Amino acid sequence: MSKYQRPVFVNQLMSNHSVKTVSKFIAYKTWNDSSLWFAEVVDDGNAFFHWHQGKKEEGHKDTIINYISADGKPWQATIKDYVFFHSPKGDTSRGHSDTIITYISGDNAAYEGSFAEWYDE
């Protein structure tokens, strides 16, 4: 059984922790394409579905996302059971696991994303 039945990202603005959003995806900048990318987590927290420039119909499932971290450096993430494995520019020998992802969004601000379960009223 999956850890989450209806997962969402809780995205916290790192410069002001009182600013948070909740969404099914993150909007992030990547180091190998100038477009803004979006990513959802699929397959019970074991893969990503990502797309660029808001064109979800052109998206695809993948095992990795390339993103710019909150400190402006190029990183790559994989995911297993809702736990990220982050590695600098894909160098897995220098990687680490974490339940959060820090990234630069389309507004050029740094965010921290983590997972939560969505409940209806």
The tally of strands reads: 12
Mean of pLDDT: 95
In terms of per-residue confidence, which ranges show pLDDT below 50 for 5 or more consecutive residues?
A: none
Radius of gyration: 14 Å
Compressed to H and E, one letter per element, the order equals EEEEEEEEEEEE
Structural domain tally:
1
How many helices in DSSP terms? 0
The percentage helix is under 10%
Which structural class is indicated by helix and strand composition?
A: mainly beta
Strand content: over 45%
Give the overall silhouette: globular
Strand order of the largest sheet: 2-1-12-11
Biggest sheet overview: 4 strands, antiparallel
Separation, N- and C-terminal Cα atoms: 23 Å
Model description:
There is one protein chain. This protein is mainly β and 121 residues long. It has one domain (8-117). 0% of the residues lie in helices and 52% in strands. It contains no helices and 12 strands. It has strands at 7-13, 20-23, 26-29, 36-42, 47-52, 60-62, 65-68, 74-80, 83-88, 96-98, 101-104, 110-117. It has a 4-stranded antiparallel sheet, with no helix packed on it. A 4-stranded antiparallel sheet has the order 3-4-5-6, with no helix packed on it. The two termini are 23 Å apart. The relative contact order is 0.26.
